[in-house]
Recover the amino acids of this structure.
């Protein structure tokens, strides 16, 4: 997404954040790629589920390059049948998606774009992912809420990505078959 913003939308100043920041796998390669494309990326570790950390991060944004867009891509999977779903397993998934989205919604203002990476799991439901479906439905509802208050919002309900990600590398052939059956 950062590469696309740089190459197709001429975005030059990117603030990228994750729980691990520069220590995340592939971080150095991403920074090099973006810099080579003419961007000025900053990668910072921040637990965006913590409103204090997020507020502190937002205060570091220089006024000459104000925050104009938020793209929330965070996710955690903790798949289990609903009969085994515990409050902790629900919290783990909701925290990464819904809590962070809520903080971004309440702590950022005057944006041109507010983009949420949701999942088709919230629309269609997927076996063993009640907590993930709930978290993504929250993102979709937040986008609707923002629209009713004349604020920008787009919730993209993704399906399974063709290339494996850190969320999907563990999927077995049986898992892929099950997912393809749902369309």
């Amino acid at each position: 997404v950062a590469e696309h913003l740089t190459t197709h939308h001429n975005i030059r100043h990117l603030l990228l954040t994750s729980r691990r920041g520069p220590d995340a796998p592939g971080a150095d390669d991403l920074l090099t790629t973006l810099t080579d494309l003419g961007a000025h990326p900053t990668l910072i570790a921040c637990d965006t589920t913590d409103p204090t950390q997020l507020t502190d991060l937002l205060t570091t944004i220089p006024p000459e390059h104000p925050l104009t867009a938020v793209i929330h891509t965070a996710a955690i999977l903790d798949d289990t049948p609903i009969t085994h779903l515990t409050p902790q397993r629900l919290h783990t998934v909701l925290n990464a998606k819904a809590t962070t989205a809520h903080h971004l919604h309440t702590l950022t203002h005057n944006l041109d774009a507010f983009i949420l990476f949701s999942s088709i799991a919230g629309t269609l439901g997927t076996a063993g992912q009640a907590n993930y479906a709930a978290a993504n439905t929250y993102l979709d509802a937040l986008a609707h809420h923002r629209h009713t208050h004349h604020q920008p919002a787009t919730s993209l309900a993704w399906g399974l990505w063709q290339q494996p990600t850190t969320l999907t590398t563990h999927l077995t052939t049986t898992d892929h078959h099950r997912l393809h059956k749902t369309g």
